[in-house]
Amino acid sequence: MYKITVIPGDGIGQEVMKPTIDILETLNTKFEFIEKEAGKECYKKHGTNLPEDTIQQCKKSDSVLFGAVTSIPEQKSAIVTLRKKLDLYVNQRPIHSYTNQDINFTIIRENSEGLYSHLEEQKGDEVIALRKITNKGSERIIKYAFNYAQKTGQKRVTAAHKANVLPLTDGIFKNTFYKISEEYPNIDSNDYYIDATAMYLITDPARFDVIVTTNLFGDILSDEGGGLLGSLGLIPSANIGDNNGLFEPVHGSAPDIAGQHKANPTAMILSSCLMLEFLGKQEEADLLHKAVDDVILENKIKTPDMNGTNTTQEVADAILHKM
Ligand code: NAI
Ligand code: MG
After folding, report:
1. Index of the ligand 1 atom closest to the CA of residue 263
2. What's the CA gap between 188 and 134, in Å, rounded?
3. Ligand 2 mean position, distance from CA 218 (Å)
């Protein structure tokens, strides 16, 4: 039996997690779910937004399901710290449109270094944030991107970087990319500067299959992907390391709509689908994914972000009904 740590977190993280667990239980996956705390509400109760007990339980589990947390200035980001503690160096974010077949690509975001190294310091008037890029970190994420492209039959891998302005850090990333690309002669490899990538995603998204990029750039492109699809509530993600996986929607805790029962649960539900695949439960993953696809394609039951009037629970119920 697989042990799954469940961290609903704050705001709509709580609201999209509950129906997701109900769906997994209906699939009869025989998972053992262990709920743990993190985030702003957790900080108010325990004085930390990421208790040691939560970290240890994640380390002992086969996978983690994570909702979303509200950030607080007093504490380092709980999710960034958790990704680091579990050495989840891959952040895989599929952007697939149901209405425009040109929009069908996956962002592979480096998840352990870059500007998310928590290396910020104040020196008098100056405040400096360090952006750390290593050979090892670049190599493992770029290899993952090419292996992913090969496994899923994608034609092209594109590196997005800013090596013109950051010749040392992004120089390593770009050079490593072309070195590793030689091991994959059947896959097209090209690169663009990050700003041009952001534009091409809007003007000509069909040119992208797999995008591999550093931490902050991947974060920004992912939300642009949400914009391309029309809602952030549709994009799931897998955080993967050598020993563990953490699955979470790309969106945050959305305080602007929290408590109003209108969060789109699709991103969280599809994240659980990525977890099922990761744990080798392909049949259950396919069944669930098809149910989600059917509900979206029918275009009847939908939350306000998709121009609908339904609640989170009604969308989840429609998916359960299809299953
Ligand atoms: P956000 O992703 O929470 O929301 C951005 C916009 O998208 C909002 O208008 C929101 O209503 C909408 N939205 C997001 N998810 C939706 C869903 N499932 N259904 C319908 N609409 C949805 O990002 P924002 O507002 O920048 O940040 C809010 C809080 O979340 C902050 O404290 C931020 O630090 C945190 N955050 C946490 C993340 C995590 O836990 N992994 C990731 C991103 C942000
Ligand atoms: Mg983000």
Report:
1. 19
2. 24
3. 8
Closest Cα to atom 38, ligand 1: which residue?
252
Atom of ligand 1 nearest to the CA of 305: 20
Residue 26: other Cβ atoms inside 10 A:
12
d(CA 84, CA 88): 6
Residue at 48 is within a domain: yes
Q: Is the CB of 235 under 6 A from ligand 1?
A: no
- Whether the CB of 253 sits within 6 Å of ligand 1: yes
Ligand 1 pocket, residue 246 CB under 6 Å: no
Strand order in the sheet with 236-240: 32-35, 3-9, 63-68, 245-249, 236-240, 90-96, 104-110, 210-213, 156-161, 188-193
Q: Name the token pair of 255.
A: 């305080």
- Write the CATH number for 24: 3.40.718.10
Question: How many domains does the structure of the chain reveal?
Answer: 2
Binding site membership of 83 for ligand 1 (Cβ less than 6 Å): no
pLDDT at site 118: 81
pLDDT confidence tier of residue 253, bands split at 50, 70 and 90? very high
Same domain, 54 and 112: no
Do the beta carbons of residue 67 and residue 248 sit within 8 Å? yes
pLDDT surpasses 90 at 243: no
Candidates 227, 275, 255, 246; CA nearest to 13 is 255
Q: What is the pLDDT of residues 270-295, one digit of tens each?
A: 999 999 999 999 999 999 999 999 99
Buried b (16+ CB within 10 A) or exposed e, 77-93: bbbbbbbbbbebbbbbb
What is the reported pTM? 0.95
Q: Who's near 160: CB < 8 A, 6+ residues apart? A: 191, 192, 193, 194, 197, 211, 212, 213, 217, 221
Tell me whether residue 235 is in a domain.
no
CA distance 118 to 59: 21
Question: With a 6 A CB cut-off, is 71 part of the ligand 1 pocket?
Answer: yes
